[in-house]
Amino acid sequence: MGKYELYFLGTCACDFSPRLKDELRDSFDSDARRSSALLVGESLLIDCGIHTLESLRIAIKDTRKISDILITHLHGDHYNADNIRAIASGEREPLRLWVRKGANIGQIENVEIIEMEQFRRYEIAEGISVCGMPANHDPNAHPQHFLLSLGDKKLFYGCDGGWMLNETYNFLRKSAIDLAVLDATVGDYEGDFRAAEHNSIPMIRLLLPSLRTIGALSDECEIYLSHIAPSLHVSHADTVKIAEGFGAKVAQDGLKITI
């Protein structure tokens, strides 16, 4: 099967740099991150928050090619109805918006809303399917992680969620994921109060060996950290060095990789 490009349009938690409003309006910067979003190929977008339209413009991506948007949860930095409406506007086929079942978001013009049952696999396009799994985050936001099949490769996207719920963890047994994008909101220290809804670097150090033990990750699985709160971390360059110590990489806005 062919390869898929993954384009990190944003990798931030909620503490956005004021630099985004002035000198960085037209560029990406590793230490001034925008709201988390990932573009898979040209047609599949994961999350559409407050900066996603701006990021698509900087990345020179044609929004008319986006056919599907997967929403991890309904917090404003991941779900922005105005930006989704803008992507869906104009002469184009209806946009499909995938949310967790029970997320009552109303109607958006030219948007087909699909409520996902958890642990059920959905075909998005030829060679692309997705399964949503409950995430350990604000339940009122209807959070979910995603396991995507991209041809013969598997991508796990787990931003905004601390650790894993038992049912999600067990569902991933023997999945042999090829690439995992993990929430890393909190930096390399212990005692942060967000542990019940966000990962810290020490939590990730503990989680990865367990995921390998149950066969959730393939032997060659690449790990990328995203959804990073700059105010809770050292610099991007120093975070890269920390992550190298446990075999992970750190995503940054504008990063392109293939799977």
Description of the molecule:
The strands form 2 sheets. Strands 6-5-4-3-2-1-14 form a 7-stranded mixed beta sheet. A 7-stranded mixed beta sheet has the order 7-8-9-10-11-12-13. Strand 7 and strand 8 (128-134) form a beta hairpin. It has 259 residues and is α/β, with parallel strands linked by helices. The protein has a single domain (5-258), classed as Ribonuclease Z/Hydroxyacylglutathione hydrolase-like (Metallo-beta-lactamase, Chain A), CATH 3.60.15.10. Helices cover 17% and strands 29% of the residues.
The name of the CATH topology is Metallo-beta-lactamase, Chain A
Apparent shape: globular
Radius of gyration: 17 Å
Summarize the biggest pleated sheet.
7 strands, mixed
Summed up, the helix count is 5
Strand content: 25-35%
CATH top level? Alpha Beta
Strand order of the largest sheet: 6-5-4-3-2-1-14
Q: Output mean pLDDT.
A: 97
Structural class: alpha/beta
Q: What would you say the CATH architecture is?
A: 4-Layer Sandwich
Number of domains: 1
Strand and helix map with partners:
Layout lengths: L4 E6 L26 E4 L3 E3 L5 H7 L9 E3 L10 H8 L6 E6 L10 E6 L4 E5 L2 E7 L9 E7 L2 E6 L7 H6 L5 E7 L17 H13 L3 E10 L9 H9 L4 E2 L5 E3 L1
Parallel strand pairs: 3-4, 4-5, 5-6, 10-11, 11-12, 12-13
Antiparallel strand pairs: 1-2, 1-14, 2-3, 7-8, 8-9, 9-10
Task: Spell out the key features of this protein.
259 residues; alpha/beta; Metallo-beta-lactamase, Chain A; seven-stranded mixed beta sheet
Task: Give a brief description.
With 259 residues, this protein is an alpha/beta fold. The chain is built from five helices and 14 strands.
